[in-house]
Amino acid sequence: MSEKEEAKPKPLPPVVNFLKAGLSGMCGTCICHPMDVMKNRMQMSPGVPVSEIIKKISKTEGIFSFYSGLSAGLVRQATYTTTRLGIYNQLQDYWKANYPSPPNFRVLCGMAMCSGCCGAFVGTPAEVALVRMTSDGRLPPSERRNYKNVFDAFLRIAREEGPTTLWRGTVATVGRAAVVNVSQLATYSQSKQIISTKFGVPESLVLHFYASMVSGFFTAFNSMPFDIAKTRIQNSKSSGKPPGVITVIMEITKKEGVPALWRGFWPTYGRIGPMTMIVLILNEQFTHLYRAIFK
Questions:
Q1: 61 Cβ partners below 8 Å, 6+ apart?
Q2: Would you say 126 and 75 are in contact if contact means Cβ atoms under 8 Å apart?
Q3: Cβ distance 124 to 166 under 8 Å?
Q4: Alpha-carbon distance 23 to 28, whole Å?
Q5: Per-residue pLDDT for 39 more than 80?
Q6: Of 5-9, 117-121, 135-139, 207-211, where does mean pLDDT reach its minimum?
Q7: What is the model's pLDDT at position 181?
Q8: Could you tell me if residue 146 is left (phi over 0), alpha (psi between -120 and 50 degrees) or otherwise beta?
Q9: How many whole angstroms from its chain centre is CA 55?
Q10: Which of 28, 39, 189, 225 is the most buried (most CB within 10 A)?
Q11: Across the chain, what does the average pLDDT equal?
Q12: 146 and 136 Cβ atoms separated by less than 8 Å
């Protein structure tokens, strides 16, 4: 066996790849959840500046309302991020074990899109609960759903509106996930390669930080139109068939203008930027920790 083959790290066990993915996402949510609350409120309140939303939440609902729906956010990470980042980790390990050179950007996009779509389908019920719970405070008291927690939300949605409502907006969620994961995971991997080779930055926390900053910006910008459409669809109280994501995007563009598709960009980037950094850096650090313990 050659020195190069000996130096090549062994792939992580699948259970570790999925576990570190879920833990990374849940840690990020605990820190960034308030930005998710503000982003959802902005998307459901056209024309209201973020400063007014912060003031209203603080004054009328209390400071802890910035963490309303946290249980749904954690369950979402335990399903969505565990699946999508776990699959991506597995695909990366498979490539490293079977091919001598890193995957090109087209291959990375395919890996990211596949893992993102799988994760989105698994995580849609928690996404529906999250959107409703974080948006509940903006409704009049008589119209609020007042879910006690994410599991109460699951049971009541299934009982009151039918089990299929838990997957309302799946097309929008999967479409957004495809864009998000290409923008986030593929861009992160490609940025790492470029920054490492072109600028001589070694494999380190600094490299992970730079790559995740680039990834976070593209993720926020590219996903915003799908995210707004998804939020509107999932928060709808209509019992009929929900409109398609393209229909919602066109309606928003027609009634509110093209800039409305990026309403709440800075709160979104304020969440996705740090969230991307935390998730991807922790994902890398958990790998190093596992290999340090189980050499």
A1: 68, 137
A2: yes
A3: yes
A4: 9
A5: no
A6: 5-9
A7: 93
A8: left
A9: 26
A10: 39
A11: 87
A12: yes
Structure confidence by residue, pLDDT tens digits, 2-11 = 444 445 678 8
* Contact (Cβ atoms closer than 8 angstroms) between residue 248 and residue 172: yes
Label residue 216 exposed, middle or buried (CB < 10 Å: 0-12, 13-18, 19+).
Answer: buried
Tokens of 281: 């850096």
Distant-in-sequence, close-in-space partners of 185: CB < 8 Å, separation ≥ 6: 85, 88, 108, 111, 112, 115, 116, 215
37-to-7, 28, 271, 293 alpha-carbon distances in Å: 45, 14, 10, 38
| Structure token digits, residue 3 | 């020195």
Q: Tell me what pLDDT residue 7 has.
A: 57
The answer to whether residue 150 scores a pLDDT higher than 50 is yes
In angstroms, the Cα distances linking 23 to 9, 44, 83, 100, 197 are 22, 30, 12, 30, 30
pLDDT at residue 14, as a whole number: 94
Please state, in angstroms and rounded to a whole number, the distance separating the CA atoms of residues 111 and 125: 24
3-state SS, the chain, equals CCHHHHHCCCCCCHHHHHHHHHHHHHHHHHHHHHHHHHHHHHHHCCCCCHHHHHHHHHHHHCHHHHHCCHHHHHHHHHHHHHHHHHHHHHHHHHHHHHCCCCCCHHHHHHHHHHHHHHHHHHHHHHHHHHHHHHHHHHCCHHHCCCCCCHHHHHHHHHHHHCHHHHHCCHHHHHHHHHHHHHHHHHHHHHHHHHHHHHHCCCCCHHHHHHHHHHHHHHHHHHHHHHHHHHHHHHHCCCCCCCCCHHHHHHHHHHHHCHHHHHCCHHHHHHHHHHHHHHHHHHHHHHHHHHHHHCC
Of the pLDDT bands very low, low, confident and very high (cuts 50, 70, 90), residue 243 is confident
